[in-house]
Design a protein that fits this description.
44% of the residues lie in helices and 22% in strands. It has 186 residues and is of the alpha+beta class. It starts with a helix and ends in a 15-residue tail after the last helix.
């Protein structure tokens, strides 16, 4: 079945709006562990420091990483897992964000890792937009790429604020106790 360009754009837009509505009104408003911790990772940074995630203050992280127009919200799912999202406010308008974040202890690296996960509605928008790029709407592809790159650049700025607040808080923590192995006495 071959839809005309206008109809294909309409169908793609409706699909995207449904995915956007479900994600933003059901999943993103609650601290849902599967939603908050799984997704397509676009951003990953290692943060070296002493201490553990269990001793970090979420209120302090939020205070240090929020801006006048964007509140950062953190939630702890366990001693080695913190998730976060940002809530931008422009007057009464609250635009959606492209990513959500995970701060977790990585036992393989023996360090804390901050991961930025792409929100599902962005992935859905790209999936439904790909067929449109190969139709009569030639301007759509470059516009989508530029918007995506700008969004990633903007989100990266906020993730850097979270990382700076995380490093500052971790540097103030006491170093973990290191015990030398004891040799058995005969």
């Amino acid at each position: 079945m071959h839809l005309p360009s206008g109809m294909a754009l309409f169908v793609a837009t409706v699909i995207w709006i449904v995915v956007f509505f479900i994600e933003m009104s059901v999943f993103a408003v609650r601290w849902n562990r599967p939603y908050c911790t799984t997704g397509w990772a676009l951003y990953e940074r290692q943060v070296d420091g002493a201490g553990s995630l269990a001793s970090l203050s979420l209120q302090e992280l939020a205070r240090r990483s929020s801006t006048r127009r964007t509140q950062m919200r953190f939630h702890r799912f366990g001693p080695d897992l913190i998730v976060f999202r940002r809530t931008p406010t422009i007057g009464a308008f609250r635009p959606a964000t492209m990513m959500r974040g995970v701060i977790r202890w990585d036992p393989d690296r023996q360090s804390v890792v901050v991961v930025g996960l792409l929100n599902w509605f962005i992935l859905a928008a790209n999936i439904v937009a790909v067929p449109l790029m190969f139709r009569d709407i030639l301007w759509f592809g470059p516009l989508l790429v530029v918007a995506f790159l700008y969004g990633i650049w903007t989100e990266g700025w906020y993730f850097k604020r979270v990382i700076a607040a995380l490093r500052e808080q971790m540097s103030a923590l006491p170093a973990p106790a290191h015990h030398e192995p004891q040799l058995a006495q005969p």
